[in-house]
Amino acid sequence: MFWEDFKKFAIRGNVVDMAVGVVIGAAFGNIVKSLVDHLIMPPIGLVTGGIDFSRHYVVLKAPSGPGPYANPEEMTKAGAVLLQYGQVINNLVSFFIVALCVFLLMQLMGKLQRKHEEVATTKECPECAMTIPIKAVRCGHCTAALKAA
To answer: First and final CA of the chain: distance in angstroms?
Structure first.
């Protein structure tokens, strides 16, 4: 009984569509991360004097071992507690890029849907003012002869 119900649930179209969406979303996330890390943040860093935002942090607790440390990951492994606000900046930029891409995609889908909806499938009978199919040559309500579409 349980497996039968689970099979019905898993095979339904909505679950499969959602799974496809999650997979595509993950791939899209990787593309956006690469876009931010390799194309957007380097020019921003250049404009701001070579700043790499991902390497900006505040030390809340110093590492217990002796330094020097090459990067925040080494400091964290040595017991440091860091407030990595630069990574938050990178993640915010990534979020805004994803949001912009989704917005543009939804705008495009809206335009395509409006074009699809604008195609008329009905017309009004000139005799009785009832709605009839656009290809009708005779009104189904009043039987008036109509011009061909």
So the answer is: 56
Instruction: Write the pLDDT tens digit of every residue in 86-105.
Output: 888 878 887 887 788 778 87
Q: Model-level pTM?
A: 0.52
Q: Given the structure tokens 């969406």, which residue do they identify?
A: 21
Distances (CA, A) of 36 to 20, 21, 97: 24, 22, 8
Count the neighbouring beta carbons within 10 Å of the beta carbon of residue 17.
10
* Contact call for residues 78 and 64 (beta carbons, < 8 A): yes
Amino acid at 88: V
The DSSP-derived string for 16-81 is HHHHHHHHHHHHHHHHHHHHIIIIIHHHHHHHTTS--GGG--EEEE--SS----SSHHHHHHTT-E
Helix %, strand %, coil % of the chain (to 5): 60, 10, 30
For 62-146, list the strands marked E by DSSP: 81-83, 122-124, 131-133
Q: What is the pLDDT of residue 125?
A: 92
Main-chain phi, psi angles of 58, to 5 degrees: -120, 130
* 21, two tokens: 């969406």
